[in-house]
Amino acid sequence: MIDVYDRPIMPRAFFPLMLVFLLAGCSAAPPPDDRSVERIVIAPGVTLRLPAAGQLGDAVEVAQMVTARHGGDSFSFEGRLSVQADHLILATTDGLGRRAMTVHWNEGRLSVEKASWLPGNVPPPANMLADIVLMYWPAEVLSAALDGAAIEEAGGIRRLRRDGAVVVEIYRDADPWNGAVALTNLAWDYHVQVGSTRLTP
């Protein structure tokens, strides 16, 4: 089954979410949403086939602070990302330390657990996962996984071009797992900056 998401991750949808973070009480998470995912639309006419976790080439455990901007608005949240040879887990928390969402990526299946107090308009987790892959996976892996765009990389800068125009631009520190990565989706007008700290096993 091919499950294609055709909407971008839109940070504006998170602003009511952050209000909910501050006001809502804790409650049990609903059953996980589990689906088969193959390609994600990351810009008009551009899709990404999500690569396996093991294609990262490194086992990683990091704590992250994520800041996103869309227009004049911004929001931040904390996360923990674990990438192993056979799976990826992303767990996000709100400003009070409560678990908001847990995303599992394993063998072509995406499983998502959300707190019941999350609003229904939260951006698709698959798009969040696609941005993570674009920021961190090796360029040669992305080149094989992209359709509709070419990737170029030099001096810590990645660019995805469609018909010569840049649709996604990424700036990476020399060690992105102990530093910062910034992604700008020019096609859908949003910016994400991630600061990571590698955790000792």
Topology:
Elements: H1 15-23, E1 33-36, E2 39-43, E3 46-49, E4 60-70, E5 73-83, E6 88-93, E7 99-106, E8 109-114, H2 125-136, H3 139-145, E9 146-147, E10 150-154, E11 157-162, E12 165-172, E13 180-185, E14 190-198
Antiparallel strand pairs: 1-8, 2-3, 3-9, 4-5, 4-14, 5-6, 6-7, 7-8, 10-11, 11-12, 12-13, 13-14
Question: How would you explain this protein's 3D organization?
Answer:
- Helices cover 14% and strands 45% of the residues.
- The strands form two sheets. Strands 1-8-7-6-5-4-14-13-12-11-10 form an eleven-stranded antiparallel sheet.
- By secondary structure, it is mainly β.
- The model is unreliable at 1-32 (pLDDT under 50).
- It is built from three helices and 14 strands.
- The chain is globular and about 45 Å long.
- This is DUF3261 domain-containing protein.
- It comes from Magnetospirillum sulfuroxidans.
- Residues 1-28 form the signal peptide.
**Low-pLDDT ranges:** 1-32
Distance linking N and C termini: 36 Å
Spatial shape: globular
Task: Give a quick account of the main beta sheet: strands, pairing sense, barrel closure.
Answer: 11 strands, antiparallel
Question: What's the alpha carbon Rg, rounded to whole Å?
Answer: 16 Å
Write the element-wise H/E pattern from the N-terminal end onward.
HEEEEEEEEHHEEEEEE
| Strand order across the largest sheet | 1-8-7-6-5-4-14-13-12-11-10
Sheet/helix structural class? mainly beta
Counting DSSP H or I runs of 4 or more residues, the number of helices is 3
Mean pLDDT: 80
- The proportion of strand residues reads over 45%
Number of strands: 14
- Helix share of residues? 10-25%
Pfam families: DUF3261
Keywords: Signal
InterPro entries: DUF3261 (IPR021675)
Signal peptide: 1-28
